[in-house]
Design a protein that fits this description.
Number of domains of chain A: 2
Number of strands of chain B: 9
Largest sheet of chain B: 5 strands, parallel
Number of strands of chain A: 18
Strand content of chain B: 5-15%
Number of helices of chain B: 12
Number of helices of chain A: 12
Distance between the termini of chain A: 17 Å
Shape of chain A: globular
Radius of gyration of chain A: 21 Å
Structural class of chain B: alpha/beta
CATH topology of the largest domain in chain B: Rossmann fold
Strand content of chain A: 15-25%
Oligomer: heterodimer
Helix content of chain A: 25-40%
Structural class of chain A: alpha/beta
Number of domains of chain B: 2
CATH superfamily of the largest domain in chain A: Metal-dependent hydrolases
Radius of gyration of chain B: 19 Å
CATH superfamily of the largest domain in chain B: Aspartate/ornithine carbamoyltransferase
Order of helices and strands of chain B: HEHEHEHEHEHEHEHEHHEHH
CATH topology of the largest domain in chain A: TIM Barrel
CATH architecture of the largest domain in chain B: 3-Layer(aba) Sandwich
Largest sheet of chain A: 8 strands, mixed
Shape of chain B: globular
CATH class of the largest domain in chain B: Alpha Beta
CATH class of the largest domain in chain A: Alpha Beta
Helix content of chain B: 40-55%
């Protein structure tokens, strides 16, 4: 198949064509030519105004629920959702049933990945069956293709255990991903502790439940000199702590979700269960600080935290509702909506290049004779998520029927092309 | 005059005029309740279901009596022995009941926001009879009615709310109501039982010393320690709680002033209130219970009236 991308702006720091408008000719999944004017017959021509092309986007924290919870999402539906949102690489949480905590389960996920447009990359559990007690066989999982290690939705609580895990992964230069929650402080909390939680009578999760874990993890990182990524950072103070640790030379990186940039705790006044997430939506000041941190480059990646929930877990009392929202398909639009001035270069970094670097993913530099793993999008135009175009199996999103800025135009990976 | 709201979900959503309307209507119903024939035909042919997902004695009986005295048809539902105990969802249960032509729902539920959730999904008026740690609006209304009865007006009245504020929907509704009506509020109790952001949220004073709180106030609304809602250690023992925050006769006598004692019930005797106070001359606890029926009649009457 021959594809011609016409007059696209290349945003890829690793490419010699970075920051230039070019035609790109792709044949059978390989970039054959990049030049200011290409006259080739193509099966598909992608053209339009203000098109930007970057290396395919990477999401580092999504839950596809397979095996075990296929009624919420499957690897197939999750992948479709990812592709529709411009992603070609997605890291999958290990909180399945059974959990992804041995080589066999890593291979199960890898085998499900039938040369689809989206590479699904399993995150292996840090502890056996995500019980938070003993170390899982991380070395074996790494050799089988685990991209990183995390206990996902149930972050490691015991300091001693995380210390050993951080040391252990140095054998293979691994990295641990932590969602920062101290469960002994958060206990039965349902939302951010603050004025809104007091007004509407929901038990609070104080910001300190997050910050204390980040402080501890930084200390453990300092001691072990290992690698750590904190995802779902939700408070201004957390960003400060991580930025400070980076300055001291620690190998720490972080990501925020699109929804923490879009919503704050005040939006929960009507008990909207779609906004029940963990870490919780924080104050307006936190939300604004997170936006600022994305612009300043203090945030390394956007992580969708795509957590599908079926209707019975969301159309119910707030207490009974489960955490999370789907987000892959709207990730870029939400970020672009709240940060319209984000440059193409920044988008390229936070949606793709930084994650590729942090997690040692293959570099898909946009260059002649390289494999095409690309996302084509525009910051202009509009997108609306509807019940009809939603690719996820679940519908737990607050963004349905909302017009958001920006549009994904096409994704191409593994010689598979999808025009959107 | 009509209420500005279709449901009574909380005091938070009521206007000052709504509150005044409910209290004045309740005064009329209180007169009715003193008559030999206590029943009026106001809600004839109106069917009300009392859905109690949590235990209740006072509130459930009070609502049922209010409904009966308004000539409504009532159905009672308690979670044990119902399909909810078999795992039926709240929405399914309510929709099933409504399909049998019920006109109004009174609900108590352990989840904050449960009546707000229902209000989004069902067409009939809902009266919140207590949701989690959020609100208990009819309790605050009957407390206000009782204070008004005793003091004439609420404006400028100094009310101390004492005890387990963290788990108390009664405290929440009282704070919303008293603020709207211009009373002064002081919150007192152990720091572990007081929400961290309460001062900013409600613009109230906070006091950890019981005696100082009592000396300040005209009325002490003493709350029950909600042992059933505590899932982590918040104080060391009931004995110690009584030593630090229990109110007894001797303490009241040494204040150098007379204050009124209220309690929403059920009382943990010997914990937050000693019997010599609960049954003593300063207590208006049983007046509160009596007024509860009149206040609930007013709420039901006004909501039904708004529909017609």
């Amino acid at each position: 198949m021959k594809i011609l991308l016409s007059k696209v702006f290349i945003a890829d720091e690793t490419s010699p064509y970075h920051q230039s408008v070019q035609d790109i000719f792709i044949e059978n999944g390989i970039i054959k030519n990049i030049s200011s004017n290409i006259n080739e017959d193509a099966d598909e021509i992608i053209s339009g105004e203000d098109l930007i092309v970057t290396q395919g986007w990477v999401d580092i924290f999504s839950h596809f629920n397979e095996p075990g919870f296929e009624y919420k999402e499957t690897i197939e539906t999750g992948s479709q959702s990812a592709a529709a949102g411009g992603f070609t690489n997605v890291f999958l949480l290990p909180n399945t049933n059974p959990t992804i905590s041995t080589k066999a389960q890593i291979e199960f996920i890898k085998n499900k990945n039938n040369n689809n447009i989206v590479n699904v990359l399993p995150i292996g559990a840090v502890t056996k069956n995500i019980e938070g007690k003993d170390l899982a066989e991380m070395y074996d999982m790494h050799n089988s293709g685990a991209i990183a290690f995390s206990d996902g939705l149930l972050p490691v609580q015991t300091s001693g255990l995380l210390l050993k895990a951080l040391q252990y992964i140095k054998t293979f230069n691994g990295i641990i991903i932590q969602m920062p929650i101290d469960k002994s402080i958060a206990t039965h909390g349902l939302m951010n502790e603050g004025i809104t939680s007091t007004q509407i009578g929901l038990a609070g999760i104080p910001a300190i439940a997050e910050e204390i874990i980040i402080k501890r993890d930084i200390d453990l990182l300092n001691y072990t000199n290992s690698k750590l990524h904190i995802t779902g950072v939700s408070t201004a103070k957390s960003i400060e702590l991580i930025t400070e640790a980076k300055k001291q030379g620690l190998q720490i990186t972080c990501s925020v979700t699109p929804y923490h940039l879009f919503f704050c705790d005040e939006d929960l006044k009507d008990y909207d269960t779609n906004l029940k997430v963990n870490p919780p939506l924080r104050t307006k000041q936190d939300m604004l600080a997170l936006r600022e941190a994305v612009i300043d480059g203090k945030v390394d990646c956007i992580a969708s935290h795509h957590f599908p929930q079926d209707i019975d877990n969301k159309v119910c009392e707030f207490d009974a509702a489960k955490n999370g929202m789907i987000g892959l398909q709207t990730s870029f639009n939400v970020v672009n909506e709240v940060l319209p001035k984000l440059t193409a270069q920044k988008v390229s970094n936070i949606f793709s290049l930084n994650a590729r670097k942090i997690f040692s993913l293959n570099n898909a530099s946009i260059n002649i004779n390289t494999k095409a793993d690309i996302t084509v999008f525009t910051k202009n135009g509009e997108s609306v998520l509807t019940k009809e175009n939603n690719k996820s199996k679940s519908f737990n999103s607050p963004f349905f029927n909302q017009t958001l800025k920006g549009k994904i135009v096409a994704v191409l990976n593994n010689n598979t092309f999808k025009k959107l | 005059m009509k209420l500005s709201t279709k449901h009574l979900l909380g005091i938070k959503n009521l206007s000052k005029e709504d509150i005044e309307l409910i209290l004045s209507t309740a005064a009329n119903f209180k007169d009715v309740l003193q008559r030999p024939v206590k029943k009026v035909p106001s809600l004839r042919d109106v069917t009300i279901v009392n859905l109690f997902y949590e235990n209740s004695t006072r509130t459930r009986i009070s609502f049922e009596l209010a409904e009966k005295r308004l000539s409504a048809d009532t159905v009672n539902f308690a979670v044990s022995g119902s399909s909810a105990a078999k795992g039926e969802t709240l929405l399914d249960t309510v929709n099933n009941i409504l399909s049998m032509k019920v006109d109004m729902v009174v609900m108590r539920h352990s989840a904050s926001g449960a009546p707000h959730f229902l209000a989004k999904h069902i067409p009939v008026p809902i009266v919140n009879a207590g949701d989690g740690i959020n609100e208990h609006p009819t309790q605050a209304l009957l407390d206000a009615f009782s204070m008004k009865e005793k003091f004439g007006e609420l404006k400028g009245l100094k009310v101390a709310i004492i005890g387990d504020i963290l788990h108390s929907r009664v405290a929440m509704s009282n704070m919303y109501l008293l603020k709207k009506m211009g009373a002064e509020i002081l919150i007192a109790g152990p720091p572990t039982l007081i929400p961290k952001y309460i001062e900013e949220t409600f613009n109230v004073k906070v006091e950890y010393n019981l005696k100082k709180a009592l000396q300040w106030c005209d009325v002490a609304n003493v709350l029950r320690i909600q042992l059933e809602r505590q899932n982590q250690p918040l104080f060391s023992s009931l004995r110690e709680y009584n030593i630090a925050y229990g109110i007894n006769k001797k303490l009241l006598e040494n204040l150098g002033k007379e204050i009124t004692i209220m309690h929403p019930g059920p009382i943990n005797r010997g914990v937050e209130l000693d019997s010599d106070v609960a049954d003593g001359p300063f207590s208006i606890i049983l007046n509160q219970v009596e007024n509860g029926v009149a206040v609930r009649m007013a709420v039901l009457y006004l909501l039904a009236n708004r529909e017609n």
